[in-house]
């Protein structure tokens, strides 16, 4: 008869201790995965928070949500999760530090399928093709490379100054022409001679229709993809007809100037440009052909630059327009900036980029313009590519991420006041230029060109012209009301003002600068 098993109590005790220590170690070192979502307004069944989403003045509506729920707010539109970020810290933590999973764009069903924006770098999904587009653009528009465009910037800003001398009331047209002329010359080698230029009309039509169509993420078809199959003749299909019209405009904007460059290259008359340089670099040495995928990427990245700089969302014209409004409303600021200009530059020449460090107050004025009215107040939406944890929150894969840039830049003392000195008095304030162009790997590739172009033009405008309210028939000043057009870009609504040369010497200065720029081009 065998004896029953008698355990080795020393061995058992050791195993218990080791096993317990192991589980304690796992409990202490295991990454905590929160199970709850970021705070947000309570949703309704099926529609989620649709009924609580602001339909107008979204930046203020989202800011009000943040005051209640914090700087990371979660909402759900039908089944689509959305996170609204309301602090610079959270935006940096997620979109900059975790850019590898926050650099996608939301899936805009109708726009992606009908508009052909799959080829444009602004909208292309994150991956190898996106990185390829960025390599194309960064090579030409990095902080060092943009200095090569200085002669062109000088030439075009003089054209703006001439326009303001001849027809100051058409200042907005001069600004639009300036933005379009810069990028058309760089991207396609095309010279713009007037506001009636065909390429300018193509870009403005595409931008206008896109804004009128609304944000792609706001269309019902993005929440119910099956709606894309509705025929255009069916009831309630106006959204699809509008998208088809917008598609035609966008395709024309991207295809027409590109086709011109290709045609000119065949005949040997093409002017050096971004597009021609890329086509030449990718051409087969035997027959000159370009791989179809490379050609599509060149066409798409060129179209993105063309649309972005000439129309929206980062157009210099919006910045110039807002600057004029700010100076009309704040004459003391303009006078102080002019006094600094006169003290540093004198009256015998125009300011240059080399003068920037010597004009600290004027630089603060430009920062305050961007803070006062950020051009793209909600930025461009991002999409989370995999589940993530932040603080004690769980953020699900596929969430649309919006950053309330407007609210972030309002986080300062007396945000409603136009006060450039705040940047001299408080060095902890972030430079708006490091925020308005986006975050992470989706930051605007043309930001250095846009910044230097705007700086040179507004420095000349400040040095040469006085800006004040227009006057009515009785000579009384007509102070404009601060109003902005709803849309992706916050353009001021049209207003009247007076733009006059500061002295008789302005005409001479402009002529001298024009002659000098002609010899250097």
From TrEMBL:
Pathway: Secondary metabolite biosynthesis. Coiled coil: none annotated. GO terms for molecular function: heme binding; iron ion binding; monooxygenase activity; oxidoreductase activity, acting on paired donors, with incorporation or reduction of molecular oxygen. Heme binds at residue 444. Gene3D superfamilies: Cytochrome P450. Keywords: Heme, Iron, Metal-binding, Monooxygenase, Oxidoreductase. Its cofactor is heme. InterPro entries: Cyt_P450, Cyt_P450_CS, Cyt_P450_E_grp-I, Cyt_P450_sf, Cytochrome_P450_fung. The keyword Iron applies. It holds the Pfam family p450. It comes from the Eukaryota. Belongs to the cytochrome P450 family. This is Cytochrome P450. It comes from Coprinellus micaceus. The lineage of its organism: Eukaryota, Fungi, Dikarya, Basidiomycota, Agaricomycotina.
């Amino acid at each position: 008869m065998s004896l029953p098993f008698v355990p080795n109590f020393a061995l058992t005790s050791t195993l218990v201790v080791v096993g317990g220590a192991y589980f304690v170690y796992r409990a202490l070192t295991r990454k905590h995965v929160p199970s709850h979502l970021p705070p947000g307004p309570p949703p309704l069944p099926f529609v989620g928070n649709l009924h609580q989403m602001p339909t107008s003045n979204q930046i203020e509506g989202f800011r009000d949500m943040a005051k209640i729920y914090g700087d990371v707010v979660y909402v759900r539109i039908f089944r689509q999760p959305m996170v609204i970020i309301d602090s610079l810290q959270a935006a940096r933590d997620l979109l900059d530090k975790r850019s590898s999973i926050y650099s996608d764009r939301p899936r805009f069903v109708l726009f992606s399928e009908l508009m052909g924006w799959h080829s444009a770098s602004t909208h292309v999904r994150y991956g190898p093709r996106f990185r390829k587009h960025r390599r194309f653009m960064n090579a030409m528009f990095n902080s060092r490379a943009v200095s090569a465009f200085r002669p062109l910037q000088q030439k075009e800003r003089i054209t703006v100054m001439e326009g303001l001398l001849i027809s100051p009331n058409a200042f907005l047209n001069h600004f639009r022409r300036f933005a379009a002329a810069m990028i058309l010359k760089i991207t396609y080698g095309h010279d713009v001679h007037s506001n009636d230029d065909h390429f300018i009309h193509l870009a403005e039509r595409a931008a206008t229709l896109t804004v009128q169509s609304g944000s792609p993420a706001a269309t019902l078809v993005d929440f119910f993809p099956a709606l894309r199959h509705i025929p255009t003749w069916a009831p309630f299909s106006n959204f699809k007809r509008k998208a088809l019209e917008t598609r035609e405009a966008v395709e024309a904007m991207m295809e027409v100037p590109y086709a011109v460059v290709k045609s000119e290259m065949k005949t040997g008359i093409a002017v050096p440009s971004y597009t021609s340089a890329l086509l030449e670099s990718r051409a087969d040495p035997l027959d000159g052909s370009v791989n179809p995928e490379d050609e599509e990427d060149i066409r798409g990245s060129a179209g993105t630059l063309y649309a972005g700089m000439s129309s929206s969302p980062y157009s210099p014209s919006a910045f110039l327009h807002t600057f004029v409004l700010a100076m009309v409303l704040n004459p003391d600021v303009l006078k102080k900036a002019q006094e600094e200009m006169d003290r540093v530059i004198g009256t015998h020449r125009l300011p240059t980029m080399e003068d920037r460090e010597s004009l600290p107050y004027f630089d603060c004025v430009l920062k305050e313009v961007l803070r006062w009215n950020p051009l793209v107040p909600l930025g461009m939406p991002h999409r989370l590519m995999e589940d993530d944890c932040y603080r004690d929150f769980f953020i699900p894969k596929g969430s649309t991420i919006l950053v309330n840039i407007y609210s972030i830049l309002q986080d300062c003392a007396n945000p409603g006041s136009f006060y450039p000195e705040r940047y001299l008095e408080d060095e902890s304030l972030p430079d708006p230029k490091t925020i308005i162009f986006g975050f992470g790997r989706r930051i605007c590739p043309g930001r250095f060109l846009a910044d230097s172009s705007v700086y040179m033009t507004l420095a000349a405008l400040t040095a040469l012209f006085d800006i004040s309210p227009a006057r009515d028939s009785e000579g009384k000043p007509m102070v404009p009301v601060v109003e902005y057009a709803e849309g992706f870009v916050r353009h001021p609504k049209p207003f009247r003002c007076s733009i006059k040369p500061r002295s008789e010497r302005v005409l001479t200065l402009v002529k001298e600068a024009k002659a000098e720029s002609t010899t250097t081009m």
